Amino acid sequence: MADAKYDVAGIGNAIVDVLANVPDDFLQSEGLNKGAMQLIDADQAETLYSKIPPAIEASGGSAANTVADLASLGGVGSFMGKVRDDQLGDIFSHDLKAIGVQYSTPAATSGPATARCIVLVTNDGERTLNTYLGACVAFGPDDVDTGIIADSQVTYLEGYLFDPPAAKEAFFKAADAAHAAGRQVSLSLSDPFCVDRYRDEFRAFIKEHVDVLCANEDEIKSLYQVDSFDDAANMVREECGISALTRGAEGSVVVAGSATVAVAAEKVSKVVDTTGAGDAYAAGFLFGLTHGKDHAECARLGGIAAAEVISHFGARPETELKTLI
Amino acid sequence: MADAKYDVAGIGNAIVDVLANVPDDFLQSEGLNKGAMQLIDADQAETLYSKIPPAIEASGGSAANTVADLASLGGVGSFMGKVRDDQLGDIFSHDLKAIGVQYSTPAATSGPATARCIVLVTNDGERTLNTYLGACVAFGPDDVDTGIIADSQVTYLEGYLFDPPAAKEAFFKAADAAHAAGRQVSLSLSDPFCVDRYRDEFRAFIKEHVDVLCANEDEIKSLYQVDSFDDAANMVREECGISALTRGAEGSVVVAGSATVAVAAEKVSKVVDTTGAGDAYAAGFLFGLTHGKDHAECARLGGIAAAEVISHFGARPETELKTLI
After folding, report:
1. What is the CATH number of domain A6-12+62-81+97-107+139-323?
2. B30's torsion region: left (phi>0), alpha (psi -120 to 50) or beta?
3. Which of A294, A320, B184, B192 could serve as a FRET partner for A202 with CA atoms 20 to 30 Å apart?
C-alpha cells in the first residue's frame, strides 16, 4: 500500500469550549448529570450561560482535540467538521491550523452559529459537558474528503457524530472510504449516554467496521450492558481487532485478540480538569500505532498525553507533547 | 454627601483577550515591542492572528479587569465600554456580569467587531499587547451614564481611552460628572507609549482632575521624562493628591502630600503571565480606599490582587480575591 500523507484523519463535531469552575451544588441545582455530556438547544445554552461564572473560551471537540494532540506529539493529522463563518468558527479554525492540523471543511455561511460546549469543572477536576451542536448539524457526507481519508493511515470517528443526523451519514461514508482504500477505522465511544442512545448501531458498526476502538470503562460497560470491566473487555475482544480501554487513575488496558496488556496511569500531581483526557489518550495511542509501536508503548503514550491535559484547565495541551515522550 | 451605590465606576475599552505563549524570537521577527501595547488595525490583527500558536480567549480590557477584580475582592463596581453585538461581545458582557459588575452600555449594532487584544506571553511571564480597538471607537459621551458616576465613590478612567477619539471626549465628560457630584476621579496611565502619545494632555488632566493616579514605574518616568523613579515620584507629588506607583517585584510606593509609603510585593512562586497585573493592583488599591483603609493597606491589597493574577495565564483572577485578603 502507498505511504499515507496523514497519520490520522479525525472527523467530529467542531466545537469551541466555554470552560468555567462551578461548585458541585450548581450541577445539582441545574439538574445536570455530573461527568456526562448532555445536548442542549440554543435557548438552553443561552440560559445556562447566563448562570455560570466568568469563563474562558478554548477550541475543543473530541476528535478535533485528538488530532490537535496528535500534531502536538509530532504526528500529521487532518480534521473534518463544520463551523459557521463567525467569530467562534474563526477561533476553532485558527487553533487547529496553528497546531499543524490540515483543516479545510468549508464553514457554513448560513444557519446556526458555531457549536459551543459549556464545560463545567468541579473541584475534583471532573467535567460536565453541555453541548449546543449549532453548525455541526450542517456537516454531511459532502464534507467528507475521501481523498484525504484514502491518504490517512487511520480515520478516527467520534461517537458523538451520531447525534447530528447528516453527520452520521458522513460517518458511514468515511468508514467505507477508509476501508476501500485499505486503511484503518478507529472509533471513540465518546460518552456512556451516547452509547445508550445508539447501542445497537454502535455494536453493529464495531463488528463490521472498527479496527481500533477507544473507550473508557463506563462506555464499554454501557456498550455491553455489563457491570464488570473484565466481562466487557472479553466481549469486545470477540468483536473488534484492537480495543484501547481507559480506566482513569487505574491506567488503561489494550485488548487485541488473545492478548491483554495493562499499563499503569502516568503520575499527575493534581487533577485540575479532566476535559479532553480521553481525546488525549486516543491521540497518544494512535500516534504510537501509526508509528509502529507495540500496544504497551501506544498505551504509555496515551497515558502521557492524558496526564498533561488533565494537569491544567482546558482540553488541549499547554506543553508541546512531543517534548514529553 | 449621600452614600454611593458603587465603589468604583470603571470606564475603558471593552476587549476580549486572545492569549498565546510565544518564544522571544517571535516578537523580534514580528517587530513587536516586548512589554508594550501597540494598536493594530483589522488587517494587521488578522495577519498576526494567523501567525500565532493556538490561543485561549478570555475577557480583558484594563479598566474592565479592574472592576472585575474589585468585584472579586467583594467591592461593588460598574463598567462603561462598548462592544459590538457579536459573539466576542457576548463573552465580554457575560464575564463582567457573571463576576458581579453592573454593565449596561448598549452594544453597537453596526460597525467594527468587538475589540480584541492579541496577548503574546513569553517564557519570562512578560506580556506584549496588540490591540485592535474595533467597536471601542464607537464609545462616546452619550455612553457615559452620569447617574452611575454620581453614585460611585470613584470614577476610574484608563489612559488607553485617549486612543479612540470619541472615548476621549467621554473620558472628560465622566471626570466632570464625578467632580460635579463631589466624587473622586482616578486615572491609570496604562502604558509608557500611551503616555508618550498624550503626555501634555495627561499632565494637564492630572493636575486639574485626578485625585488618585495609578501608574507603574516606566509610565511615571515617561510622564515626567526623567530617568529616576524618585524624581518622578517627587514630581507627581506636586501635581496629584494620591499616586499609587507600582515597581514590579520591588512592590509599590504610595505618594500622598508629604507622605511616602513603600510596601513590598507579595511573594509569587512563579510569574506565569503578567497580563492584568497593574489592573489588579489598581483594583486592590481602590477597594481599600473605598473601604476606609490607610494607604499602606491599600497598597498591600493591590499587591495581593496582582500576585494572584500573575501566577496564572490570563488577566482576571482564578481564585476569588476576597478569600485571599
Report:
1. 3.40.1190.20
2. alpha
3. A294
Which residues in chain A have their CB less than 8 angstroms from residue B49's CB?
94
Is A243 exposed, middle or buried, given 0-12, 13-18 or 19+ CB atoms closer than 10 A?
buried
* Local structure of A76: helix, strand or coil: coil
- Listed by start position, the domains of chain A span 6-12+62-81+97-107+139-323
B125 close to B272: Cβ distance less than 8 angstroms: yes
Task: Select the residue of A52, A99, A314 nearest B56 (Cβ to Cβ).
Answer: A314
pLDDT tens string B83-106? 999 999 999 999 999 999 999 999
User: Residue A150: what are its φ and ψ, rounded to 5°?
Assistant: -65, -20
pLDDT for A308 beyond 70: yes
Indicate which of B88, B90, B94 best probes the interface with A, i.e. most A CBs within 10 Å of its own CB. B94
Task: Please identify which residue in the block is written with the cell numbers 447525534.
Answer: A163
- Are A56 and B314 in contact (CB < 8 Å)? yes
CATH 3.20.20.80 fits B6-12+61-110+139-323, yes or no: no
Q: Per residue in A142-190, pLDDT tens? A: 999 999 999 999 999 999 999 999 999 999 999 999 999 999 999 999 9
CA angle A113, B18, B272 (to 5 degrees): 140
The pTM assigned to this predicted structure is: 0.96
